[in-house]
Q: What sequence folds into this?
């Protein structure tokens, strides 16, 4: 079975400071990893994915994530947070043999204060 | 229209009503999904359709009935729902090729309230 853990329900950060949202996963074989963001009253919006290759993945809106196989982690990062980054962030994983079944974490709410 | 659209955006229904949620994707994808998002619970995958064939049904109660008439449209028919079914229902689509499935694109969701 595959699973995702987002250990923090909420992350508070001051505007301009670095933002990190943590994600760890468990899956059989090589993982496919994704980050999504959800703004109020909206669906999930794709940010970035790791399939293979470079461990540092760059995505939309200045976000990036680092795949760490030994720590089974895929933390989302942004060097300088904006107030508009305040939203709900979801990490998701799919095992190579899982077909199209994504497993999502519980989500982390990010609050960026001016 | 672009991306994934869902109608209605909000729905209030009684426990004896029958209603349907509609999803349409304008991305040329061949896989579509229904998810349930409840407060303080992880996103729950309900159904997956690939090439118009249901390939996943995650032990969803029979009061939820999906329908995929073609690769662009997905419906979720609702009947005799319970108050605990109140949630945000999200539709998504993706392009599946061989054993590879790309990222999913989500619609804005239908906020369902069951009285």
A:
């Amino acid at each position: 079975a595959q699973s995702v853990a987002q250990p923090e329900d909420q992350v508070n950060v001051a505007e301009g400071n670095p933002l990190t949202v943590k994600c760890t996963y468990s899956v059989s074989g090589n993982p496919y990893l994704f980050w999504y963001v959800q703004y109020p009253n909206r669906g999930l919006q794709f940010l970035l994915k790791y399939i293979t290759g470079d461990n540092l993945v760059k995505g939309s809106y200045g976000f990036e994530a680092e795949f760490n196989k030994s720590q089974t982690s895929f933390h989302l990062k942004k060097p300088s947070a904006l107030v508009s980054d305040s939203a709900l962030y979801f990490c998701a994983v799919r095992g190579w043999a899982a077909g199209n079944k994504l497993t999502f974490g519980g989500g982390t709410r990010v609050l960026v204060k001016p | 229209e672009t991306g994934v659209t869902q109608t209605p955006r909000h729905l209030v229904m009684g426990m004896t009503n029958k209603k349907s949620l509609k999803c349409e994707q304008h991305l040329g994808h061949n896989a579509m999904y229904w998810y349930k998002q409840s407060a303080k619970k992880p996103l729950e995958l309900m159904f997956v359709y690939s090439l118009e064939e249901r390939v996943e049904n995650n032990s969803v109660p029979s009061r939820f009935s999906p329908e995929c008439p073609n690769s662009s449209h997905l419906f979720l028919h609702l009947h005799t729902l319970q108050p605990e079914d109140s949630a945000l229902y999200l539709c998504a689509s993706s392009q599946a090729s061989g054993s590879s499935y790309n990222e999913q694109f989500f619609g804005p969701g239908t906020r369902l309230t069951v009285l």
Remarks:
- The interface with chain A takes residues 4, 6, 31, 33, 41-43, 45, 48, 50, 55-56, 90, 92, 94, 96, 99, 101, 103-109, 111 of chain B (CB under 8 Å).
